[in-house]
From TrEMBL:
<dbReference type="GO" id="GO:0005886">
    <property type="term" value="C:plasma membrane"/>
</dbReference>
<feature type="domain" description="ABC transporter">
    <location>
        <begin position="20"/>
        <end position="257"/>
    </location>
</feature>
<dbReference type="Pfam" id="PF00005">
    <property type="entry name" value="ABC_tran"/>
</dbReference>
<dbReference type="InterPro" id="IPR017911">
    <property type="entry name" value="MacB-like_ATP-bd"/>
</dbReference>
<keyword id="KW-0067">ATP-binding</keyword>
<dbReference type="InterPro" id="IPR017871">
    <property type="entry name" value="ABC_transporter-like_CS"/>
</dbReference>
<dbReference type="InterPro" id="IPR027417">
    <property type="entry name" value="P-loop_NTPase"/>
</dbReference>
<dbReference type="InterPro" id="IPR003439">
    <property type="entry name" value="ABC_transporter-like_ATP-bd"/>
</dbReference>
<keyword id="KW-0547">Nucleotide-binding</keyword>
<dbReference type="InterPro" id="IPR015854">
    <property type="entry name" value="ABC_transpr_LolD-like"/>
</dbReference>
<dbReference type="GO" id="GO:0098796">
    <property type="term" value="C:membrane protein complex"/>
</dbReference>
<dbReference type="InterPro" id="IPR003593">
    <property type="entry name" value="AAA+_ATPase"/>
</dbReference>
<dbReference type="GO" id="GO:0016887">
    <property type="term" value="F:ATP hydrolysis activity"/>
</dbReference>
<dbReference type="GO" id="GO:0005524">
    <property type="term" value="F:ATP binding"/>
</dbReference>
<dbReference type="GO" id="GO:0022857">
    <property type="term" value="F:transmembrane transporter activity"/>
</dbReference>
<feature type="region of interest" description="Disordered">
    <location>
        <begin position="1"/>
        <end position="26"/>
    </location>
</feature>
<protein>
    <submittedName>
        <fullName>Peptide ABC transporter ATP-binding protein</fullName>
    </submittedName>
</protein>
């Protein structure tokens, strides 16, 4: 594996405490002839205050890695930690609580409840957990994503970009240890997508959040502090401070190698 340090050196966050990690992570689906090694020995750490993009061709294991590290899916062997909590040691109830209290999610489909207002959607995970929102934090997050004038609208009265802003605010509302975003701009036009990526980046820069984003899009990866490249369930490359152009070049290299192998 080559680690590209980029023209400006290592990310300042690169030596911070670890927010989440995976060690020698394996995930196999099916058995016999149908056996698929979706993850084949992945070692990775996501540091606090760092924005990581996970990239790779279709079927390379990006979603599987995200789901295993976020406690949404089980793994075959290896270890996953959120902070110092080892996920393999938790029962289902403890895992549910960990996801609710310590992890924020943003999905491609916004997954908002249509009968609730924007504000009610944003605070729903806190309501379910029986926690009072930290009002100052909430106001800050809502202002950051530019929703202050839309809080009493229902999702059907909002544009796609505004709905995804609600989803980003919901992910940040509980001050999670880490936010996982799975193709968060996949359903948006390029302008709305750029806004959402800007908010995710701001949440890292201004709020010290840790964000892990799965994406196919080199432009989206250009917002991250580093891009990690998966192929066949393994990490094959990493780029610090990626730009869209450098990510695109790297992806072309992979495609060329795949053709010549
Ligand atoms: N539930 C499942 N049962 C069997 N195989 C699966 C299942 N989910 C994923 N796989 C397989 O595991 C491998 C990794 O899939 P994964 O969805 O993680 O890839 P990905 O990189 O996220 O792909 P994409 O970019 O297309 O979303 C693929 O070969 C896929 O077919």
């Amino acid at each position: 594996m080559t680690v590209d340090q980029g023209p400006v050196g290592q990310s300042p966050a690169a030596r911070g405490p670890v927010a989440a990690s995976a060690g020698d992570l394996h995930k196999t689906y099916g058995s016999g002839e149908n056996r698929v090694r979706a993850l084949d020995g992945v070692d990775i750490a996501f540091r606090q205050g760092e924005f990581t993009a996970i990239m790779g061709p279709s079927g390379s294991g990006k979603s599987t890695l995200m789901h295993c590290v976020a406690g949404l899916d089980s793994f075959t062997s290896g270890s996953v930690r959120i902070g110092t909590t080892e996920l393999g040691r938790l029962d289902d109830r403890q895992l549910t609580e960990l996801r609710r209290d310590r992890i924020g999610f943003v999905f491609q489909a916004f997954h908002l409840l249509p009968t609730l207002t924007a504000l009610e959607n944003i605070t729903l995970p806190l309501t379910i957990a029986g926690r009072r929102p930290d009002r100052r934090w909430l106001d800050h997050v809502i202002a950051m994503v530019g929703l202050t004038g839309r809080l009493h609208h229902r999702p059907g009265e909002l544009s796609g970009g505004q709905q995804q802003r609600v989803a980003v605010a919901r992910a940040l509302a509980a001050r999670p240890s880490i936010v996982f975003a799975d193709e968060p701009t996949g359903n948006l036009d390029s302008r709305a997508g750029a806004e959402i990526l800007g908010f995710l980046r701001d949440s890292v820069r201004e709020l010290g959040q840790t964000v892990v984003m799965v994406t196919h899009d080199p432009v989206a990866a250009g917002y991250a502090d580093r891009a990690v490249f998966l192929a066949d369930g393994r990490i094959v490359d990493e780029m610090v401070r990626p730009s869209a152009e450098r990510v695109l070049d790297r992806m072309k290299d992979f495609d060329a190698r795949a053709v010549t192998v």
